[in-house]
Every structure is written in structure tokens, then in C-alpha cells.
Specification:
- It catalyses: a 5'-end NAD(+)-phospho-ribonucleoside in mRNA + H2O = a 5'-end phospho-adenosine-phospho-ribonucleoside in mRNA + beta-nicotinamide D-ribonucleotide + 2 H(+).
- Keywords: Hydrolase, Magnesium, Metal-binding, NAD.
- This protein is of the alpha+beta class.
- The chain has two domains: 11-156, Alpha-Beta Complex (Nucleoside Triphosphate Pyrophosphohydrolase); 161-307, Alpha-Beta Complex (Nucleoside Triphosphate Pyrophosphohydrolase).
- It contains six helices and 18 strands.
- The longest helix is centred in the middle third of the chain and has 19 residues, at 110-128.
């Protein structure tokens, strides 16, 4: 059976920011660091500003004289505290560009990518956790943005939803790629789905692939993981073996079509670009135009590793 490993750490997993967890409950230290701190502003849809390839941060004192309750503490970068806030008025300018991780993530260095990934996930959780899941009362941010407290004293912490993403191959030179309902006709990727309660990751891989394309898989093998803040998932990458002669069925309605592609076709598609560059993919032997995911997705890293 063919085996492979990820050649590189997924882009959004390369975080080098010091999260400085010990400071989250130290109100005095956070206030002391505020005058020299930087603030990352996040707009609706998880958009942020870049100047070329540099992440735009603002002086904290431009926002307020002290840390506002809705700000979240991301960590420490080169001795400077870094915070994030949601800013629905944020827009680009002649000197900056406004975009999201899918559009701009490939430009960022490891520290900046970690800042954005954490900020988008954490602020997104706050927007959806304003009332306690236990007693329904309103909650307020605590712990420098890393928890919320209800009036009754119940503390809640940010959720992360685990999801598996799996490349199915035939043990040789063919791989199964699928297109979801609603995707453009050229866009294909590997299969993914959320982990259910009481389910192991390997069982989830088997269930999701069976539900989405009707295929039984074996030799499920873990490859690596990547945070995916859309809105707050953790993608856990796998590879598995499937029979290319088995019939494919799309019973749950999520997948519009799926095909087996050769290694040569996948390599050509990787050379042709990705979803973010507006290309139309490459023509395959089956008459399907194949365009693959962008560089910030672990899906591309897995496909690239298999193709190599």
C-alpha cells in the first residue's frame, strides 16, 4: 500500500505568536502593556488589512485609553502585546488592501497567519456566545477575551469544532475528488465532514465518505491538522484506501459529482493554479475540468503530498 506524508506544515498551522496564557488573568500586566500594544481590526466576514504582504496593526491607544471589554488578547510579539477587535466600519484605503484569509492568507508570515486565525475564530465565537448555554442569561467577556461569564457565575470557553478531511486513493495512481453542490463546475477537493458526538476520528472518516459518495474505505491514516476559522473548526487530515471500481452514490445531497483522477492529471491541475486565481483548471481524460483548492487549505497540502 502506498504511503505518503505532508511535505510541509499547513500554512495556518505555522503560528509562532507567543500566546502568553499567563497574562490573560493578570489585569495589571495587561493595562501596563496597553500603551505600547498593537490592535488587529477584524471586519465583517473575517476580513483584515494588509499593506503588500504585511499585516496592518494599529496602536492600541488609537482605540481606547485602556483595554476595552470587547477586545481579545492574542499574545505577545517581540515584546509587544497584541489584541484584536471587531470593527464593522473597517475598510481598505489607497495604501492597504482588505480581504479574508482565503484571499490574502498566502501572503502572510507565520506569526501574522497565527494572529489572524486566532482572532477570526475567537471574535466569531464571542459574536455567537452572548447568552449562556446553561441558563440563557447574558454573558460578558472575561479572561482578556478567552472566556465569557454569565450573571450566575457560569464560565464558558471558546468552542472548536473538529472536522475530518480525507484524501481517498486507490493505493496506486488514482485519487477521488469531489465537487459540492453550489460550487462552480471546475472546483474539486477531497472529502470532509464534522465529527459527531461519541465518534472517533477514524470512524468519522469512514462514515462521512460512505454518506457523501457511498464508498467504503480502509487503511485510514492520520496526516496532520490545521485550524480553520470558518467559523471555528479544526481540520484533521487523513488518507484512506478506496476501490475505484465501486459505484459512487450521492445519497445525502451534499456532493454534486465525484471522479477518480490520475496522478498526472492532479499534477497538471496543481501547476495550473487554484481556486483563488480565477483559472478554469485543466481538462482531464473524463472531460472534466479540474481546479484544486488554494494554498491556505490543508486540502491542497494533502493533495500535493499525494501527487508528489
Amino acid at each position: 500500500m502506498m504511503t505518503f506524508v505532508l511535505a510541509d506544515t499547513p500554512l495556518l498551522s505555522r503560528a509562532t505568536l507567543d500566546r502568553a496564557e499567563q497574562l490573560r488573568g493578570d489585569v495589571a500586566a495587561l493595562h501596563t502593556g496597553w500603551p505600547t500594544a498593537a490592535v488587529l481590526r477584524i471586519a465583517k466576514g473575517g476580513r483584515f488589512r494588509v499593506d503588500g504582504s504585511a499585516l496592518v496593526l494599529d496602536p492600541a491607544t488609537d482605540l481606547a485609553a485602556e483595554p476595552p471589554e470587547e477586545a481579545v488578547f492574542l499574545g505577545v510579539d517581540r515584546g509587544r502585546h497584541v489584541w484584536a477587535v471587531f470593527d464593522k466600519q473597517l475598510d481598505g484605503s489607497a495604501a492597504t488592501e482588505l480581504g479574508d484569509l482565503r484571499m490574502l492568507g498566502g501572503r502572510l508570515d507565520d506569526t501574522s497567519a497565527g494572529m489572524i486565525t486566532t482572532a477570526v475564530a475567537l471574535l466569531g465565537w464571542h459574536n455567537r456566545a452572548r447568552f449562556s448555554s446553561v441558563d440563557g442569561t447574558a454573558t460578558r467577556p472575561t479572561g482578556a477575551g478567552w472566556s465569557r461569564m454569565s450573571a450566575s457565575g457560569h464560565e464558558e470557553f471558546p468552542r472548536t469544532d473538529p472536522a475530518v478531511i480525507c484524501l481517498v486513493h486507490d493505493g496506486g495512481d488514482r485519487v477521488l475528488l469531489a465537487r459540492q453542490q453550489g460550487w462552480p463546475a471546475t472546483m474539486f477537493s477531497i472529502l470532509a465532514g464534522f465529527v459527531e458526538a461519541g465518534e472517533s476520528l477514524e470512524t468519522c472518516v469512514e462514515r462521512e465518505i460512505r454518506e457523501e459518495v457511498g464508498l467504503a474505505v480502509t487503511d485510514v491514516r492520520y496526516l496532520g491538522s490545521q485550524p480553520w476559522p470558518f467559523p471555528r473548526s479544526l481540520m484533521l487530515g487523513f488518507a484512506a484506501h478506496g476501490n475505484p471500481d465501486a459505484a459512487l452514490t450521492f445519497a445525502d445531497g451534499e456532493i454534486a459529482e465525484a471522479h477518480w483522477f490520475s496522478r498526472a492529471e492532479v499534477r497538471a491541475a496543481l501547476q495550473a493554479g487554484d481556486w483563488t486565481n480565477g483559472g478554469d483548471g485543466v481538462e482531464t481524460a473524463a472531460g472534466v475540468r479540474l481546479l484544486l483548492p488554494g494554498s491556505i487549505s490543508i486540502a491542497r497540502g494533502i493533495v500535493t503530498a499525494w501527487a508528489g
